[in-house]
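Annex B. Sample input.
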Amino acid sequence: MTVPRQLPNTITIVRILCAPVFLWMLLADGGSDGPLRWWAALLFIVAIATDGIDGYIARRYEIVTDLGKLLDPIADKILTGFAFIGLSVLMELPWWITIVVLIREVGITVHRLVVASDHVVAAAWMGKLKTVAQSVALSLALLPLWNLVGDWVFLVNGVTMAIAVVLTVASGIDYVLTEARGARRDRAAS
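Annex B, continued. Sample output.
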């Protein structure tokens, strides 16, 4: 089977384009549990799930590109960043969490863009784990389950969000340390 070389990157770009639509749907009804909230949550879940699909296709058919390695984590950060911001705007998530997450995500993304001409920094295992944790925590926070299952869902949301925040900070530290070690090795080799 022949797969178009641009398919994984196209999926990634579609994920980026879904982010503002998702945010609009989330904020349009003011955080109620109406149909737009459900559609926003569904769009987020589908869009974030495609993260694994584009990577799988690229690896499976050996069509991994530097552009894909660069765009894929950016797409994740845009989508999750919009979710964090939307939940904070709706006052369903403390702003300090959103700020901590966005500082880490923007900092790593800016660094990746700065060094892109030298080398492309692919996502490490801890960064991938962080993305999964954020995806689960945000999906649970976005779904208006409180009317269906009761208040205990807030405890589950709190625990999953705490795990996501801890992994976000830890993976950011891991990224900085890994890049610093690599830079030291490069200086020592030259």
